[in-house]
Amino acid sequence: MTEDVHAEDGSSPVAEAVLPLPLEFEALYLSNQEAFHSYALLQLGSNGAAEDAVHRAFLEILRHWDALTEEGNLQQHTWAILRRVVISQTLEAFRARLTLLRGETGLYQAMGTLPPRQFDAIVLRYVLQYDTRWISWYMGVTPSTVDYHCRKAKERLEPAVASHIKTEGDPK
Q1: Where is 27: in which H helix or E strand?
Q2: Burial, 137: exposed, middle or buried (Cβ in 10 Å; 0-12, 13-18, 19+)?
Q3: Which one, of 160, 41, 136, lies nearest residue 89 by Cα?
Q4: With contact defined as beta carbons under 8 Å apart, do 137 and 84 qualify?
Q5: What are the C-alpha distances in Å from 22 to residues 35, 61, 66, 72?
Q6: What is the pLDDT along the chain (172 residues), one digit of tens a residue?
Q7: pLDDT at residue 61, rounded to an integer
Q8: Rounded CA separation 163/147 (Å)
């Protein structure tokens, strides 16, 4: 039932389509994959989520490979990429769980509707209680931009919470 996908000269077009990876990248992968996976597993709690995070991290590393090798301290930069990917995946999972929560104020539902940057900033600051400097590092923005995202998120959340409280208190 499978078809032979060889060119007339006997070569496989699929094998030719595979792009060679830089040898240094392969070495980095082999020397770090197990530690990266262990870290992601500890943070994310499931093998599948950890595998996804490590895969995403190595794709990100490969995408920026030339710049990373020019900057120096490759290990530090690749570890930072892994941490960012794991944090991002944690935030995505938290956003998905918010839809299942029922609160008295409607805050959870309103948080789930925030734009991604505002959601990340508000969760990192008020739920996980990270400081602005750390959040700005993670998000790749300035501290004042973090403050802006938090302020805008709070502005979006206030009407949703206020209208829910008003509706709950209405005797009709």
Answers
A1: helix 23-44
A2: middle
A3: 41
A4: no
A5: 21, 12, 10, 17
A6: 444 444 566 655 555 556 688 899 999 999 999 999 999 999 899 999 999 999 999 999 999 999 999 988 888 899 999 999 999 999 888 888 887 777 666 788 888 889 989 998 998 898 889 999 989 988 888 999 999 999 999 999 988 777 655 555 444 4
A7: 95
A8: 25
Q: Are 138 and 86 within 8 A, CB to CB?
A: no
- Please tell me what DSSP assigns to residue 113: T
Written as one letter, the residue type at 48 is G
pLDDT at residue 19, rounded to an integer: 67
**Amino acid code (one letter) for 63:** R
Q: Which ranges in 113-171 belong to alpha helices (H)?
A: 116-122, 132-139, 143-169
Query: What does the block give as tokens for 154?
Result: 């709070």
CA–CA dist 28, 75 (Å, integer): 8
Structure tokens at 45: 């709690």
Beta carbons within 10 angstroms of residue 85's beta carbon: 22
Q: Output the six-digit token pair for 48.
A: 């599948």
**Distances from the Cα of 94 to the Cα of 22, 88, 172, angstroms:** 36, 10, 34
